[in-house]
Amino acid sequence: MYNVILFLLVPLKSIEVELEVRDHVATVVSTLNYENKEDKPLEAVFVFPLPGDAAVCHFSAEIGKTQIVAEVKEKQKAREEYDDALSCGQQAFLLEESDRSPDIFSLSVGSLPPGESASIRLEYVTELAVQADDGLRFCLPAVLNPRYQFTLCLHVTSVPASLVPYSLSFSARVSSPRPISKVESNCSLDPLQYLNTDQTQATVKLAAGHKFDRDVELLIYYKDAHQPTAVVEAGQASAEPGSLMGDPVVMVSLYPEFPQSVMSSMASCGEFVFLMDRSGSMVGSSSCPCSLKDTLLLLLKSLPMGCYFNIYSFGSGYEHIFPKSVEYSQQTMEEALKTVEQMEANLGGTEILQPLKHIYSQPCIPNQPRQLFVFTDGEVGNTKEVIDLVKKNSDSHRCFSFGIGEGASSALINGMAKEGGGHAQFITGTDRMQAKVMQSLRFALQPAVVDISVTWDLPKEVSVTVLSPPIKTLFQGQRSLIYAQLTGQVGAVAEGCVTVKYSLAGHPSENQLHFSLRPAEDTGLTVHRLGARTLIRSLEMDERESRGQQDGGVKEKVVKLSVQSGVSSSFTAFIAVNKDNSEVIQGPLVRRNIPTPCEFISKEKTKTLSISVFSFSTIIRSSCYFIFVFPAAAPEQPPRDPLLHLVSLQEASGCWLLDPALATALGKTNKEVETSKPEKVDLWATILALLWLHAFKMDAKDEWELLAMKAASWLRAQNGSNMIIKE
């Protein structure tokens, strides 16, 4: 690959990120340092990603010795104030959330005079997601992939990671009531430094020389991670009592543990719909397209007999293997796998809305609960519309979503799973997609949890207002968070109790947590801001659902809560104007779009030279640069994974056939596997396959456990459990 670049001067010089993790909540402080080395005043515009569930709670600018703290205002008023300031020759700063997706922000730094420097401080708080291996995931989205439909409205400028003209430094401090086992990352880290003997506090930072070729992902592991907790945070002294910011707020973290007798029984029915992203952008993902094919192989081999399934794929349009979901059998499984083998990432753009509408338009099959699995890199421009559609159909299905590759939209992936009552997973770097996907399939096969209710037992002088939406789903060992406002007089030794009741496979169950109402120390307003963000997101969705109806009060509620809490929303923005500077900035203002790193790959496969053009829009002139990409020779295909080879030979019923292909997969000759075979050769073949899995692939048990359970069930059905296996 060869690149020929003509670069413009870019005023953003460095980004410094400080992360503070307290148990499963993170506070992130980013400092962006700008310098104008041109001979004209500049307006710098930087469009960048943040976690979709982040609560942006502080924005300030430092110019020389002057610090300006931004205020939250209604978005249109903030934009007008920003434009008025620039037209008057004043310095102004505007931070706003995209109208289409809550994980995209635009930062405008206005009227930066020649030779002037400015530091922008941005702070947000976010929850850490629980992973399949119980690690807590923090992701700093360094990569902003082009979002289809976005570039025209947001002027996103993207360049290959190696060409980003600013640096990143990143450090993290972790503290928890429980010991910290380890911290891992997809990037190179300096060694973890423990700060005390019980290993409950530690620091870590990125190794020198980090490149912008990926998101920065941290996986934090605690001992005894499944302990339920409750944190009560005192209200803000200056806020009005009875208001959200003036009252204490509690954050309850629950980890439901289901009875083993119930968990051992997997569902033998269901309609499983797999929706695969085959847009051109998937070519650049480190996990695709081969891993998607391997994952579909494992999924199809692990489905229970008696269920129904279908596979959709989408890009600019969409396709499906069957006109409607079909019953799972050897014939339909083979037909689906044959089609999957021919799939390529060649369907153009990422238009997920239309295939979703088609899936939801299909009538549900009686007694076959619909389970939707969505695989995408999340490069869509209508995130909120997609999430709203999933929510609208949440009563008829569960949605399990998978974000693939660097820069996958966390707002889209988490939002679909949350509103669809499912579970979200992210696959990046060297992650094995199969293990994470199979965990979600286990969740889908678990008995559905119904009749979920939450009750509070508090002192009579204390009332509770729940800020979180109702809990829609519970999964074994997965965390559920509840935020609630506590109003009234709390005694020094007062205690509260929260109880979650539900029904699982016809068995009533409950989980209970007793907690002290005494506020925790040194939490600042983190819990309040997360609670406010949770309520704001719920109200925003209510507003979108009520459009066209006579309910104009929801937007006003969001704006009021956003301003009161200092947390951003889709209807507000942070605005700061340097009114202390009496010197009017002279000269025409030049606009510079700050380039954002992207996973750089041509959106369409070509066999000739491809040319990509990225434009820097300016107010007084336009410039551009060209990147010439010469396609590299196709790499040789690696030999097939022995595990996947063996899995590919399994029948839909769960058994294996005794033939030369199985012998090859087991690393034996046909003569060796036929030695001492019983009369029922398929029983023998299936036992040999299970023995091989347990002997050689225990490290990948999460991937083959379900299909092995199906094989064991087949053996029992054949009265093969009492067979004597000869040495």
Automatic annotation (TrEMBL):
Where the record annotates domain VIT, the positions are 1-126
Highest rank taxon of the organism: Eukaryota
InterPro entries assigned: VIT, VWF_A, vWFA_dom_sf
Q: Which residues form the VWFA domain?
A: 271-441
Q: What is this protein called?
A: VIT domain-containing protein
Could you tell me which species this protein originates from? Oreochromis niloticus (Nile tilapia)
